[in-house]
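Re: the request from the purification team.
They wanted to know what the chain is likely to look like in 3D before they choose a buffer screen. I agreed to run a prediction and write the result into the notebook, where they can find it.
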Amino acid sequence: MNDRSTPAPPFRPRRSALYMPASNPRAIAKARDLACDVVILDLEDAVAPEQKASARDAAVAAVRAGGFGYRELVVRANALDTEWGADDLAALRDSGADAVLLPKVSDVDTLGAARRQLGDGIPLWAMVESARGVVNLADIVDASGAVGLAALVVGTNDLAKELRCRPGATRAPLLPILTQVVLAARMAGLVALDGVINVLDDEERIAAECAQGLEWGFDGKTLIHPAQIAAANRVFAPAADEVAWAQQVVAAFDLPEHAARGAIRLEGKMVERLHLDEARRTLALDAAVQARQ
């Protein structure tokens, strides 16, 4: 379990974060062998009201049983303004989960209330899935240190519903919001995960939406089906040419004659030390991904 005062390193792979219903024992068992970087045991949208209590017990039991290997294990609780939210957080307080994903985060007060109920230690992830949440993003991330917030996760389906927009394959109506989420996450050094895609059997479209998320600056994508994992892992991992270029950049700045230089010329390009930082991050992420394979 991560201590909230020491955020996980930015190169920890979170290419694929798969929602799995905690009410389904077979799904939980299967999650232990899937290639996703993050398993999100869901107590919210994927669980019927009459199964909420048993799903909560199953999620806590699964976390304590372990067996998920390198996978980051997150539990999505029900919102605090529901009849199940407080009980979810009480059960998860000492569960040993890597994080609790809180839905419907619209303001700092919601995060503060969740932190008080969870106590210290377990990081919070916040879903951005309402108009008010988007408007309050700056305040939300400004409070990240105080409330132990480690990640922002976009809820694109809920946003589209509330905004009454029609994203389609391009997600054009949501792109300004996706930009704001990434911007807010980077302001506070948080992880940013893109929303789900509802398509299950069109690998080309899944890969295209993952590529769009990568271009927008997201660290990975939330998923609703194991069939989507391969595309997300492939797209959000550094490509071979990116790794090769990063190696060149690091090697060039390591030369004694470049030790005091802020910018150098490399293969016809001007490369600055900010590119060196990104190159090191690329290599660290690649090393972490390769270790998992």
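For the purification team: The chain has two domains: 16-236, 240-292.
Please add any questions underneath this entry.
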